């Protein structure tokens, strides 16, 4: 029995897109309950930490992937780092919703990408990667930042759902263990 590689890619991307959508939806719900003051408030003496900076960082990475899809060249290093999504939760939410919508059409895109990876001392490596691999990376990368967001938000007194910042694979594991625990 032969497999159609296009169909396999679409199935694999569908699951990865769904996980990323789940993460982006969590972020959107988080942003819906935040004031602009809490969102943009500096949380360290140097002003490098804020809820908005972490969300903007996540947005930048997704937008880098979406920009790379048509030409196949991916560069996470050279991001715009715009201040507006760091200060305005409504703008950040709008961007996250646009990213989520754009992810839905990735199944029609070629899967191969080349990642530009900068090295210490100014060197640059070009690494073969795939759309699927980068979607998996973005899920984990976003969850990592959401875990930090959760800690920062709790320090501000912002209540979060128990599942916020928990990787979808961990949520699946917890769900699979629940029937055993109640038996």
UniProtKB/TrEMBL annotation:
Pfam families documented for this protein: DinB_2
Positions of the DinB-like domain: 22-148
SUPFAM superfamilies: DinB/YfiT-like putative metalloenzymes
Superkingdom classification of source: Bacteria
Ranges in coiled-coil conformation: none
The protein's name: DinB family protein
Annotated organism of origin: Halomonas salifodinae
């Amino acid at each position: 029995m032969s497999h159609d590689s296009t169909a396999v890619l679409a199935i694999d991307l569908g699951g990865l897109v769904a996980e990323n959508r789940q993460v982006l939806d969590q972020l959107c719900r988080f942003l819906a309950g935040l004031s602009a003051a809490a969102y943009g408030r500096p949380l360290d003496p140097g002003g490098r930490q804020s809820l908005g900076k972490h969300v903007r960082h996540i947005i930048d990475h997704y937008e880098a992937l979406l920009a790379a899809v048509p030409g196949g060249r991916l560069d996470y290093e050279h991001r715009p780092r715009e201040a507006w999504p760091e200060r305005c939760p409504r703008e950040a939410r709008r961007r996250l919703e646009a990213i989520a919508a754009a992810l839905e059409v990735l199944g029609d895109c070629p899967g191969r990408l080349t990642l530009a990876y900068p090295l210490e001392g100014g060197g640059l490596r070009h690494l073969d990667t795939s759309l699927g691999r980068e979607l998996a990376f973005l899920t984990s990368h976003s969850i990592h930042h959401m875990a930090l967001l959760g800690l920062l938000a709790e320090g501000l007194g912002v209540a979060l759902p128990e599942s916020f910042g928990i990787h979808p694979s961990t949520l699946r594991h917890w769900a699979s263990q629940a029937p055993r625990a109640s038996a």
